[in-house]
Design goal:
Chains A, B: This is D-2-hydroxyglutarate dehydrogenase, mitochondrial. Chains A, B: It is found in: Mitochondrion. The structure is a homodimer. Chain A is of the alpha+beta class. Among the domains of chain A are: 116 residues, Uridine Diphospho-n-acetylenolpyruvylglucosamine Reductase, domain 3; 113 residues, 2-Layer Sandwich (Alpha-Beta Plaits), CATH 3.30.70; 81 residues, Alpha-Beta Plaits (2-Layer Sandwich). Chain A has 17 helices and 16 strands. In chain A, the strands form three sheets. In chain A, strands 13-10-12-11-15-16-14 form a seven-stranded antiparallel β-sheet, with helices on both faces. The longest helix of chain A is centred in the middle third of the chain and has 17 residues. The two termini of chain A are 27 Å apart. The interface between A and B is large, with 87 and 87 residues.
């Protein structure tokens, strides 16, 4: 049975469209003078310098902000927000600007508050593995910092070279290691957050356990900057595994892929750290646009399996037994294994660069769906049938271990007729199977009005109450996450 | 530097004391008639039957409720709360009543809402391992149900034979497997909750990933029934490990115990599922009161290490290498290993029954502290010096892997002078080392006014706003979790 989705305020016809501008103040000369005194040389108004901050990575959403602020300290963020809240100026917090749902760029003229200069590690405890750092640290820089100390970050994703840890936490990023290390709701131990009115909320604990009152930090994980600006993070980091292996396999059907997954969980057990897949269409795009080479014979489906463990001999033995099993039972048609870092990286890049390959196809309609794992590829096949020749390409890839499909539909350029054929069809399909219409990307601007496909209206109303409580003027990342009838 | 702890409303002098009764209505004959119509035969008013529900497991806190309600369905819980909210009747939700901070019994005459008849498994998916069940399922029953299906619960604790999963989630229970499977904030995938006014909030998702709006379920995890009554839970369950081993070891100093832990994490890595400790005083109590036998030579410290993995040969090899290392380097003085279920259970029961042994000592002052792991036993030793002959026994045990100490101080009977010597000393000590004054037990009635030792006042104020938003009349579990100046 389909969930109701009571969009109002004119959003019924085109729930993906931009909403009307809310009555925030405009930035005045006095405001600029205040910012320039607070952030000398870090108050950017040059339109050329602002350009890349006004548009998202996919170049599908563009705002018109005239001010970019680059604070270095929590105190500066606090003063900025206090001023903006008093003056009723809207603010768009921005990390690495790698989001895929238009959550990290302004919709109109919101002031962009960038965390790019808040990039310091504060402390690292090499006994407990607890890292505390500013929100603007780039994920890959943190990974490198930790690798030198024999630890790793509990999350990894394709955008690691640009994304900020504060943005990762604000969007509750999933990525490639969730299967093994769990979600940020478990690994983030503490947050420092500046609230809309400039109050600093210090919940920057570095404890694995703390049951003293409500866990306020959870409100800010995954709320996409609409409830507060995360300025610092403490996070529990796993030890660097002593042995890492990657297997790249081909399967002739999705059913066989699922059986391979079941077999893999049983035989690799606790050393399994990733089970990812992409389809043959993705491989074609990798070959065509990025000149990558398929390391095995052509197959309808490709799998990347990673193991991470503490004993190389044991891990290889487990992996080889598993490979023997899936080869002899013909679940897998061909495969290759890597234990050496360069080759591991090369195999991973096939999976990680699918998103990039897609950007060369023209316009991409992106969907990030959670479903019961048995159903995830049915949606791709159903969509191919449903769209026929209208779409250039319908491809599927994602995180099998998490039941998370990235469904991508390409077209030479933006195509309203194609969009109308995809939506709400894709959301209705997902809702019918009790899936999530945003598994890990968040709702941002693009998906905000589709929230009712995955959440009951009582829940959305309560989200609105929380927003009103923490940000009564609605200055923080307006037009994002919550549907138009709530803003 | 000590945190401020601005208790008001007369609680400065004795912050552990019961607060004055708030002006809730008294239960009338009409209320009872309503309950009896709604819950025929399940509206309990017989004082004898109410007795065990009015007093906590430790027999340290006792209420005077005259009504115990035993709903079977969410709809019944909804109708109860709607009625109570309209009538301004206070409600104390109760699961297995195994809590240690007086959170699960009424303080005055609150109506007890028991989940004991809400004990049905709703669904279990043996591909994903996702279990959905009513809140009143006993943890051990769920464990047995899952074991038959080759899965396990992601949490385990000494009270498993009585505690309810709803209570576990409401208190964000930690327990013995947290080191391996993480906290309930990561493993709980969905909740159904009845709000104070009777509205049913259905967030009972069964997806590993879902980033559609704010994660409302987190508000109810660990809020001890003060924001809503959890009626159903969906939770991600790990596969049953193919091999389990337990090692029981002795150490001659806490420093050596810590070095053993570091060595263990390196050598056992991903198969380590628990690292627990207790001291020689605990062992004496186990021998004296429960007639348990120490399986190894006497030592100042005892360790229980559990491994859980997918390959018995590999696991035993890792464990033996580790044991060889810690024996030859003299980190460990003596030890024994179990691979067989009965012996494993016997070794575990030494650790699990310390709490029970303590109840035979007279009155026990219990503290559940998180600290940087290097510091956890310093607190026990410091406390022994500080209290001298005033205490009968000062013992320490707990979860080394989580930096979680259970500090227990016994006395022949309640002793105000002893209490005055312990508190606020123990909280100041913890605060000075940035620890948590309640790692996993919650605040309940007993610790509510000490929250400021672990949380800044801005955070506590925000908790008060959340409480006011969700339960404006304050009927849900009053006098618990939040300090008196917030109620």
């Amino acid at each position: 049975p389909l969930k109701p989705h009571p969009q109002r305020n004119g959003s019924e016809r085109n729930p993906g469209a931009a909403p009307p501008r809310l009555p925030f103040s405009r930035v005045t000369r006095e405001d600029l003078a205040f910012f320039r005194t607070l952030l000398p040389g870090r108050t950017i108004t040059d339109p050329d310098l602002l350009k890349s901050s006004n548009v998202d990575w996919l170049k599908t959403v563009e705002g018109n902000s005239e001010v970019l602020l680059r604070p270095k300290t929590t105190e500066e963020v606090s003063q900025i927000l206090r001023h903006c809240n008093e003056r009723n100026l809207a603010v768009c917090p921005q990390g690495g600007n790698t989001g895929l749902v238009g959550g990290s760029v302004p919709v109109f003229d919101e002031i962009i508050l960038s965390t790019s200069l808040m990039n310091q590690v504060i402390t690292f405890d090499n006994i407990s593995g607890i890292l505390t750092c500013q929100a603007g640290c780039v994920l890959e820089n943190l990974s490198n910092y930790l690798e030198e100390r024999d630890f790793i970050m509990p999350l990894d994703l394709g955008a690691k070279g640009s994304c900020h840890i504060g943005g990762n936490v604000s969007t509750n990023a999933g990525g490639l290691r969730l299967l093994r290390y769990g979600s940020l709701r478990g690994t983030v131990l503490g947050l420092e957050v500046v609230l809309a009115d400039g109050r600093i909320l210090n919940c920057l604990a570095t404890l694995r356990k703390d049951n003293t009152g409500y866990d306020l930090k959870q409100l800010f994980i995954g709320s996409e900057g609409t409830l507060g600006v995360i300025t610092a993070v403490s996070i529990l980091c796993p030890r660097k595994p002593k042995a890492v292996n990657v297997a790249f396999l081909g399967c002739s059907s999705f059913q066989q892929l699922l059986e391979t997954f079941q077999c893999c969980r049983g035989m690799l057990g606790e050393i399994l750290s990733a089970f990812e897949f992409f389809d043959a269409s993705c491989m074609s795009l990798l070959e065509k646009h990025l000149k990558l080479t398929n390391p095995i014979t052509e197959s309808p489906f490709y799998i990347v399996i990673e193991t991470a463990g503490s004993n190389a001999t044991h891990d290889e033995e487990k992996l080889h037994k598993f490979l023997e099993e899936v080869m002899t039972s013909s679940l897998v048609t061909d495969g290759t294994v890597a234990t050496e870092a360069t080759k591991i990286k090369a195999l991973w890049s096939l999976r990680e660069r699918v998103t990039e390959a897609l950007t060369h196809e023209g316009y991409t309609y992106k969907y990030d769906i959670s479903l019961p794992v048995e159903k995830i590829y049915d949606l791709v096949q159903d969509m191919r049938g449903h769209l026929g020749d209208m779409a250039k390409n319908v491809v599927g890839y994602g995180h099998v271990g998490d039941g998370n499909l990235h469904l991508n539909i390409t077209s030479p350029s933006k195509d309203p007729a194609l969009l109308a054929a995809i939506e709400p069809y894709v959301y209705e399909w997902t809702s019918e199977w009790k899936g999530s219409i945003s598994a890990e990307h968040g709702l941002g601007l693009k998906k905000r009005n589709y929230i009712y496909y995955s959440k009951p209206s009582e829940a959305v109303a309560l989200m609105g109450s929380i927003k009103a409580m923490l940000d009564p003027k609605g200055i923080l990342n307006p037009y994002k996450t919550l549907p138009d009838n709530i803003h």
